[in-house]
Design goal:
Blueprint (H helix, E strand, L loop, with lengths): L1 H32 L7 E4 L14 E8 L8 E5 L7 E11 L5 E5 L10 E3 L4 E9 L2 H8 L2 H24 L15
Antiparallel strand pairs: 1-2, 2-7, 3-4, 3-7, 4-5, 5-6
Length: 184
Amino acid sequence: MLQTARPFARGALDGALRALSALSLILLVFLAIGPRTGLYRPVTVLSDSMRPTFSRGDLVIATPLPLDRVRVGQVVTFQIPVGDHRVESHRVIQVLGGGSAPVVRTKGDANATPDPWNAQLVGDEAWVVSGSLPKLGLLILWMRDPRLHGLALFLAPALLALRIILRIWLPGGRRTLRSGARAA
């Protein structure tokens, strides 16, 4: 029984490590490389001000739109003009000035009153929310935790070393011998 459990355990660990590697690669492409193309921006939602459209912990995808095409009803992602200038994603309820730097009035869907500022959209384009991925932003919030950074610093190399050691030491591990290097 023990003989059959070892290959299964080794296969399960190997499969889990492969899946973790694949997931890490997909996240790297989606969150780090993809936004550099300028086709989209992933934004983690930090509050419930836009419920039920999206909630805290969701990941919204913002896509570029020429500034002169910003309209009432669209959800735009912008830096608020007061305080810490955090990024906010709220619905446009009024366009006060158009042109190359429109001024908009915004409001969160769950808020009773409009935002206490008028936001001027600057740059070449506005970022309009075009979709959301429920609760995927929680993973990003979790990955920003400094304790996880410390853990990853040690855990990732340890898992890689464990995989290599298991391949070397466990019977039936993959070994390729060249025909000239076979033991006599």
